Amino acid sequence: MTTGPDSATDLFGALTGTDDPALGRLRERLAAAAERDGLLDIAYRTVDSPVGTLLLAATGEGLVRVAYDREDHDAVLAKLADAVSPRVLRAPARLDPVARQLEEYFARSRRTFELPLDFRLAKGFRRAVLTHLPDIGYGHTASYAQLAAAAGSPRAVRAVGTACATNPLPVVVPCHRVVRSDGSSGGYVGGEQAKLTLLNLEAAA
Amino acid sequence: MRPFERIVDEYGPVVLRVCRAVLGPADAEDAWSETFLAALRAYPDLPEGANVEAWLVTIAHRKAIDVTRARARRAVPVGEVPDRPSASGLPQDWDGDLWAALARLPDRQRMAVAYHYLAGLPYRDIAELTGGTTDAARRAAADGIRALRATYRPTSSVEGARP
């Protein structure tokens, strides 16, 4: 019989399973306890949608990030950990109202979102632009130049483009309604196809 | 810093194994929950480059001590370690025979075995947690493994075998 340092793995086979149902319920319990104790700085979940899988993240103040698949959800979470807090957990409950309203939006039964929003990821002029985006009504579009004028800086057309491209809350804050003056859709954080999908969805309603 | 969710992904399973080996099926899940909640609280202050696994095992050790003391206070003496079903009712969650054998070890041996063989902690770190010298921790682990071999045979290698 040997008792060297590496000879005990056979003893613990009963403990070394990886696909463990206990971990699933423990993680749910941790998320609930973290919320209860005020330690859930960022809760997140994903939802499926006609424009792909969306990552939703919320602070205690409100929805802080909506991210498209092509933005790389892992990278987005890593950036949130750096920019806001590393206390990040998958915790769907806080995002239930967001998921529900998105589902209604994609089913064409909702035209505006009624959600607390946390704009902390957008600063200065970009933030000012984002706060004007909901003024563009459902099913309508505005040009980058019109939005620049609305934000009080008519010559900052390029900065408006940047603000839209870096919108931390796409879909919910409707940067997809900002299009080129020639009528073409222009770029989009979720890709041009996603922008067209959203514009067509709203036009058909 | 990495999102805490990634820490749970990476170390959740090993901390659960350690909690189960040290405390058994009845208390392991409470200890795991309290360990990760305390870790979440302290996480933003964890120094860059810290050994996350050793840090978590240290927290789990403190929680295990708390649970052990609480259990001693409310203990009703039982002649034999009960053959408990797994907490979830799923047999793959836990092997009652292994816990029965681990439960017969003195606390220090059971902890040394769990921290070294399941979490890979060096004996120097284990000595810091359980007190005593590095050599004493090494001896406790070796004695624990020897005692386990004498009383427990994994069901995976010999079907249905009992010591």
TrEMBL record, chain A:
Reactions catalysed: a 4-O-methyl-thymidine in DNA + L-cysteinyl-[protein] = a thymidine in DNA + S-methyl-L-cysteinyl-[protein]; a 6-O-methyl-2'-deoxyguanosine in DNA + L-cysteinyl-[protein] = S-methyl-L-cysteinyl-[protein] + a 2'-deoxyguanosine in DNA
Record function comment: Involved in the cellular defense against the biological effects of O6-methylguanine (O6-MeG) and O4-methylthymine (O4-MeT) in DNA. Repairs the methylated nucleobase in DNA by stoichiometrically transferring the methyl group to a cysteine residue in the enzyme. This is a suicide reaction: the enzyme is irreversibly inactivated.
Domain of life: Bacteria
Homology family: Belongs to the MGMT family.
Subcellular localization: Cytoplasm
EC number(s) per entry: 2.1.1.63
UniProt-recorded name of the protein: Methylated-DNA--protein-cysteine methyltransferase
GO molecular function ontology, one term from the record: methylated-DNA-[protein]-cysteine S-methyltransferase activity
HAMAP family named among the record's database cross-references: OGT (MF_00772)
Chief location category: cytoplasm
Leftover remarks: This enzyme catalyzes only one turnover and therefore is not strictly catalytic. According to one definition, an enzyme is a biocatalyst that acts repeatedly and over many reaction cycles.
PROSITE patterns associated with the record: MGMT
Boundaries of every Methylguanine DNA methyltransferase ribonuclease-like domain copy: 42-119
Chain ranges of the Methylated-DNA-[protein]-cysteine S-methyltransferase DNA binding domain: 125-203
InterPro entries linked: MethylDNA_cys_MeTrfase_AS, MethylDNA_cys_MeTrfase_DNA-bd, MethylDNA_cys_MeTrfase_DNAb, MethylG_MeTrfase_N, MGMT, MGMT_N_sf, WH-like_DNA-bd_sf
Gene3D superfamilies linked to this entry: Methylated DNA-protein cysteine methyltransferase domain, Winged helix-like DNA-binding domain superfamily/Winged helix DNA-binding domain
Active-site residues annotated for this sequence: 175
